[in-house]
Amino acid sequence: MKEKNQNFFFELNLEADHCIKHVFWADARSKVAFEYFRDVVSFDTTYNTNRYSVQSHIVSCSVHVHLSVHHGLGALIYVGSFVGVNHHGHSTLLGCALMKNEDIQSFKWLFECWLRPMGGKAPKGILTDQCASIQRAIEPCMPITIHRWCI
Asked: How many Cβ atoms sit within 10 Å of the Cβ of residue 101?
């Protein structure tokens, strides 16, 4: 992909056996959009999971994907999306990830990866679900960003 688009950014986090643990990517449009629409960003790894059965009003493009792995066992892969809102009030994608785990270290890795193509600039505010691991990962990675929970 880098050959076709020099501004495409991706990062892989591999396990000891060289299997992919996490993947993050952001294209050139995501990087440019962040420059203009970085006031408040939504980060979401949920899909139809809140108690009100209401999808996120900002974006509902995150899904859980079941993959087959060795010996026919299933593994849950979490899809995370960073989304901003443009000057027309439309959602604009600012980066995506596939994650094997939703623990603090995984989210820290992801937030650090996301900040690299965004020039190291954190958003003024970030909206997430009420995941304690996300909250604890945001604090060291984006210390001046205001963190709010979605319902």
From this structure: 15
- What is the spatial distance between Cα 148 and Cα 128, in angstroms, rounded to a whole number? 7
Give residue 18's pLDDT. 86
In a domain, 1, yes or no: no
Residue 2, pLDDT score: 62
What pLDDT is stored for residue 6 in this prediction?
Answer: 81
Torsion of CA 90, 107, 143, 35, to 10 degrees: -30
Give me the domain span that covers residue 123: 9-149
Pairs from 92-95 (Cβ < 8 Å, separation ≥ 24): 92/30, 92/33, 92/37, 93/29, 93/30, 93/33, 93/59, 93/61, 94/26, 94/30, 94/33, 94/34, 94/37, 94/41, 94/118, 95/24, 95/25, 95/26, 95/30
In angstroms, rounded to a whole number, what is the distance separating the alpha carbons of residues 151 and 137? 19
Q: Give this prediction's pTM.
A: 0.81
Q: What is the mean pLDDT of residues 60-89?
A: 64
In a domain, 39, yes or no: yes
List Cβ neighbours of 142 (8 Å cut-off, separation of 6 or more): 111, 115, 122, 123, 126
